[in-house]
């Protein structure tokens, strides 16, 4: 739609977020760029969060990168794109000749969720394969757990929650992280569903739930096994479902027997009576839906935690029927779209796990001589950020593609400005939403910004790899969408607005055909045995055992050098990882009991210390916080420091994920003379 002075397009949010909001974007020279919610969007229905407006403001922001920058005499100076492309091409050739393609590090993640952004990976694959991260910074432990249990990561349509009689928000806060799920939850509550929140922090969603269960951080899997113990003890199983669709019950029952209610109460802080109530609710009031968050698997035992939660639904037959199941993520889109990445057989990358990436790079042979960063900000997002800075400094030449001068860009040798979601077209297919939609180009790229698709295509041509980049961006989108032509979904149809994909069923696993070796839900798995050394979920085998063996005698003052308190570093409400972060410093949240112990009040400053680092934060005191927990949301300072300076890399049990919530901390009141 075009008017005389204004352009209006339906578009989409590019962030890797559960909601994947639909936008209506307006642009005129007098009013600039404005974003509002798309009222015709099937799921988000006209409501968008503050991050939508923040993205629009970035387009014309003074912080926007305007042209390529090259480090020179300790600072960054402007250069032309011709110089930048020639320099980067020469650095790639030089690295290939001297140490081979593994001497190039490509660090990427999902700062922009568009499918064309994955052409960055295709470029480095076309070089023969480079050094890159393996595993996950976010959800890998739980993701791999569900692949082991069910043979895939699938979930039913959002609207199915309205048919549930019990909805458990386990480590998840839709009121903050999944805003458009809330109306469906309230609809379910209105017709009689019981909503239960299980979380160490009394999150915002607890305001509309009927029950809030405050569990010790990292003990969610222990609680799940304790509930399973009671269900098995009382015989509250759905025996028909178990006989037909569950493998490994006997081995699982033997493991669950170890989690007697008294032991579980000690480890989780949940009384025996409450455990029994939860067991009865899950097994006797059906159907049950669990919305599982990612915080509960950000421990070294995180995969086993989700396996234990999956098992509760398997034991009680709460899978494959309307209103039942677990919402963790989707694999549907990847199975139905063409990929822009190359076939694995055509290249050979060297991969290192995310939790230990800095350590591995520091001793890599051949060494990393050239680093290229896209869609991410590793100096802030990766654990052990103090080591990251040291390793980063030693890499001879570093390149960052971004919209603003992030901390990683600030410490790079070449910085390349890229387009926002309002300056080019891309396909958005998220890991949580059944909707396909496009970001739309509503303004020409500002200043000298270029899209990654154009940049990497030109680099490929310069390096003689043009055959690997045969398409224009529009042709790439047509290629990705080609398998959906049978459903009538094309690039042209998506330009008219978002579409719900017909290949995502209303109910996940309705045919009860699980993609595991046994064809059933595997409570005992040979894959788990091979990968982890134990076939059955045991949340105490890793991480959680140490995390839970804290001194629960609250009145005892810890001695110097001890780190007695749980440390949780969640996303703040208005930011996503390092995007849209404020730089006025950090804010921590503690319970009044912990505040009293250290003579702290709201507005004071406190030093938060772990065995790996320390930082200063402003104090807020709240009854909502677990009494032995320090909640320190991701934040930043003008100097570029983030919360991950407090954290070291550790291994998760499955998925090579990053256990960001594994650290323990000490508090000290900051006194100014």
UniProtKB/TrEMBL annotation:
It comes from the Bacteria. One of its GO terms (molecular function) is molybdopterin cofactor binding. InterPro entries: Asp_de-COase-like_dom_sf, MoPterin_dinucl-bd_dom, Mopterin_OxRdtase, Mopterin_OxRdtase_4Fe-4S_dom, Mopterin_OxRdtase_prok_CS, Prok_Mopterin_Oxidored. Pfam families: Molybdop_Fe4S4, Molybdopterin, Molydop_binding. Its cofactor is Mo-bis(molybdopterin guanine dinucleotide). Keywords: Iron, Iron-sulfur, Metal-binding, Molybdenum, Oxidoreductase. Residues 6-63 form the 4Fe-4S Mo/W bis-MGD-type domain. The keyword Lyase does not apply. Belongs to the prokaryotic molybdopterin-containing oxidoreductase family. This is Putative anaerobic dehydrogenase.
């Amino acid at each position: 739609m075009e008017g005389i002075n204004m352009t209006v397009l339906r578009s989409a949010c590019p962030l890797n977020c559960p909601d994947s909001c639909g936008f209506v974007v307006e642009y005129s020279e007098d009013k600039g760029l404005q974003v509002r919610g798309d009222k015709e969007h099937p799921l988000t229905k006209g409501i968008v969060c503050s991050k939508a407006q923040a993205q629009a403001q970035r387009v014309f922001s003074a912080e926007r990168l305007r042209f390529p920058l090259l480090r020179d005499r300790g600072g960054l100076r402007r250069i032309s794109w011709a110089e930048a492309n020639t320099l980067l091409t020469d650095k790639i050739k030089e690295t290939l000749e001297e140490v081979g393609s593994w001497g190039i590090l490509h660090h990427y993640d999902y700062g922009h969720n568009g499918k064309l952004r994955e052409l960055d990976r295709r470029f480095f694959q076309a070089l023969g394969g480079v050094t890159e991260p393996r595993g996950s910074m976010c959800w890998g432990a739980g993701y791999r757990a569900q692949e082991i249990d069910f043979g895939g990561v699938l979930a039913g349509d959002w609207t199915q929650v309205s048919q549930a009689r019990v909805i458990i928000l386990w480590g998840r806060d839709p009121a903050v992280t999944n805003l458009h799920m809330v109306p469906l939850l309230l609809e379910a509550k209105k017709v009689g569903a019981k909503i239960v929140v299980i979380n160490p922090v009394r999150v915002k969603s607890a305001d509309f739930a009927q029950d809030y269960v405050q569990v010790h951080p990292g003990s969610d899997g222990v609680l799940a096994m304790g509930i399973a113990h009671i269900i098995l003890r009382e015989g509250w199983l759905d025996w028909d479902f178990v006989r037909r669709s569950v493998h490994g019950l006997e081995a699982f029952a033997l493991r669950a027997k170890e989690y007697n209610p008294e032991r579980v109460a000690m480890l989780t802080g949940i009384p025996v009576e409450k455990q029994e109530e939860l067991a009865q609710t899950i097994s006797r009031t059906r159907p049950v839906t669990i919305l599982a968050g990612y915080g509960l698997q950000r421990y070294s035992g995180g995969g086993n935690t989700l396996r234990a939660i999956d098992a509760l639904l398997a034991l009680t037959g709460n899978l494959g029927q309307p209103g039942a199941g677990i919402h963790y993520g989707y694999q549907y889109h990847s199975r139905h779209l063409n990929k822009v990445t190359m076939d694995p057989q055509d290249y050979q990358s060297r991969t290192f796990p995310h939790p230990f990436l800095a350590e591995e790079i520091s001793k890599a042979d051949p060494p990393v001589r050239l680093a290229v960063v896209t869609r991410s900000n590793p100096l802030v997002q990766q654990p052990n950020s103090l080591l990251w800075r040291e390793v980063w400094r030693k890499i001879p030449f570093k390149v960052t593609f971004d919209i603003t001068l992030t901390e990683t860009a600030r410490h790079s040798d070449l910085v390349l400005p890229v387009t926002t979601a309002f300056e080019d077209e891309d396909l958005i297919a998220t890991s949580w939403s059944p909707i396909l939609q496009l970001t739309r180009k509503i303004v020409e790229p500002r200043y000298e910004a270029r899209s990654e698709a154009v940049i990497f295509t030109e680099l490929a041509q310069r390096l003689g790899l043009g055959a690997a980049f045969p398409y224009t961006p529009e042709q790439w989108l047509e290629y990705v969408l080609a398998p959906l032509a049978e459903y009538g979904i094309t690039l042209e149809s998506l330009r008219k607005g978002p579409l719900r994909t017909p290949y995502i069923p209303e109910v996940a696993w309705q045919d009860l055909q699980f993609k595991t070796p046994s064809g059933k839900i595997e409570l005992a798995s040979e894959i788990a045995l091979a990968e982890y050394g134990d076939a059955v979920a045991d949340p105490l085998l890793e991480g959680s055992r140490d995390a839970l063996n804290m001194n629960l005698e609250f009145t005892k003052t810890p001695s110097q050098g001890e780190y007695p308190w749980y440390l949780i570093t969640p996303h703040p409400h208005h930011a996503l990882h390092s995007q849209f972060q404020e730089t006025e410093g950090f804010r921590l949240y503690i319970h009044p009991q912990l505040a009293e112990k250290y003579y702290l009040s709201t507005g004071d400053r406190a030093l938060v210390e772990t065995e790996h680092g320390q930082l200063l934060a402003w104090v807020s005191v709240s009854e909502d916080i677990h009494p032995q927990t320090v909640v320190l949301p991701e934040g930043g300072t003008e100097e570029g420091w983030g919360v991950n300076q407090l954290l070291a890399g550790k291994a998760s049990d499955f998925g090579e994920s990053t256990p960001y919530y594994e650290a323990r901390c000490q508090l000290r009141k900051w006194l100014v003379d």
